[in-house]
Design goal:
By secondary structure, the protein is mostly helical. The chain folds into 2 domains: about 80 residues; about 60 residues, no CATH class. The protein has a two-stranded antiparallel sheet. Strand 1 and strand 2 form a beta hairpin. The protein is rod-shaped, with a radius of gyration of 27 Å. About 5% of the residues are buried.
Length: about 170
């Protein structure tokens, strides 16, 4: 995206406004135009980044990123996966979960807020109804199946190593 037309337009508007103040004001406006170029571009980039963040929140799980190519911003749109989510086939381990991963129904539980795109929520509700369980039960089974080690794979130890009590590992988006 070429920012030059926007920066040039702002400089032109500054010059037009300065003409009202006479020759001295017009000269000052011309001298200020060059240093304001970088500041104007930075403000425009911040606005574009904020807009991309808002669009990403609406597109989840897709995203929009703003990247710089030289002095010009470039939008990179990552669409959501085009494959459809078929819970019955993709999470077949979730259906067989009671045999594979015993869940202690009497164990303490925690409440977690989960935000899902409306389309995914509808698919989860359909899958839960198809399996004859509640959405909560279906999600617990799916999560348990996803975190269960694959057959033949040793479980990973998630405890921090001694002396690493303040270390945090993981990933962010």
């Amino acid at each position: 995206m070429d920012l030059n037309p926007y920066v040039d337009d702002l400089q032109h508007r500054l010059a037009v406004a300065a003409e009202l103040g006479g020759d001295e004001a017009l000269d000052l406006a011309r001298r200020l135009s060059a240093p304001l170029d970088a500041a104007t571009r930075l403000v425009l980039l911040e606005a574009l980044s904020a807009a991309a963040g808002e669009i990403t929140a609406e597109l989840a799980p897709g995203s929009v990123d703003v990247r710089l190519r030289g002095r010009d911003p470039e939008f990179v749109v990552t669409a959501a996966a085009t494959t459809t989510f078929e819970p019955a086939s993709d999470l077949s381990a979730a259906a067989a979960l009671p045999a594979a991963v015993p869940l202690d129904e009497a164990a303490a539980t925690s409440r977690t807020t989960l935000r899902l795109p409306d389309q995914l929520k509808a698919q989860v509700e359909q899958a839960a109804a198809r399996d004859g369980v509640s959405v909560n039960t279906w999600l617990v089974r799916a999560i348990a199946a996803a975190v269960a080690p694959a057959p033949g794979q040793r479980p990973t130890d998630t405890r921090p190593a001694e002396g690493d009590a303040n270390r945090v590992t993981g990933w962010v988006r």
